[in-house]
Amino acid sequence: MKKRLVAGLLVSLMATSLVACGGAADSNSGDAADAGDGTTTEASGDTAASGDAITVGFAQVGHESDWRTASTNSVQAAFSEENGYDLEFVDCDNDSAKQIEAVRQFIQDDVDYIVIDPIVSTGWDTVLTECEDAGIPVIVIDRTIDDSDKYVSWVGSEFMNEGLAAGTWLKDYAAAKGIEDLNILVIEGSNGSSAQIGRTDGFKKIADAEGWKIIDSQDGDFTQDGGQQVMESYCKSYEGKFNVVVCQNDNEAFGAMDAMKAAGVSYGVDKDVILISFDACKAGLEYVQSGDINADFMCYPLQGEYCAAIVQQLEKGETVAKQTFMTEPWYVAEDVLDSITYTNNAGEEVTEELVVVTDAASQASY
Ligand code: GZL
Could you give the CA distance from residue 104 to residue 160 in angstroms, rounded to a whole number? Predict the structure, then answer.
């Protein structure tokens, strides 16, 4: 049954952000704050009253990584039939055109809500306007949409801070270990995704400030094959010229490790190459525990329940926070540093504890 925001009612969203502690968002029950234009909106909430299943269309990035699998499972569990939902799930296979098409199909199907994890951060305003015209609220999770704000809420991570934290850790770690010249290779995530943009920009900000040389930075598409192919090419092109590899997710790091092993390049604690990764999935933390990955910067994927909490708030006619950030631990292989301190993307000086991995199975979130 289609739930409609009553026409003529406008949306008031908290302009502020909420921060979830320990990688789990508190349910967003922020007080209404006017959007600055005095508008307030109340969703009609008739679906809950009617008892019909709430229909949700979810356009997921794809199936490229362990992180993505955890994200998909989290959303499917949250929007399950027993929880009162009818979920229309589309795996968009990393294809932006397919993702836009999936959203248009959700509009055709007259779903109550649309959830999008945007493959890339631009090219969204037209289809989000179509959602708005159809009276279907859009919730964005994980990656960001940067060319439109026609969605009611976003839940995800601050990718710039992940990059800043990785760069800061490398600076302090190299100093503590007496490593002076850092010659860095980067294997980026899917080009144009906000995760790739934020991690790249954040790390580069520290690299530029420290005068490090980033020898090369190529797209590994967040996949293990992508990481392996790029690293094979790097090992051929830059043999003996690099001592740091930054992979923008764990699956790329798994591929890069295979390529370096085949090329006779050692990596990890007190080896030829310092290996840095992002996501901190269980398999990634197992490599941190073994000392193969020096540091792994968590990106928290279990956002389904927070997305469902937003839907429930809208069903009850509550206003919701425009942004909810996951906060995430930074994992390391050695007890060399207790914490890192840097200026985050909000301009705040933050000091964040580092977590030494001693038992990946119990320390992993997914
Ligand atoms: C980040 C997410 C990224 C992960 C990758 O929030 O979008 O996409 O870091 C995944 O593992 O493929």
Answer: 31
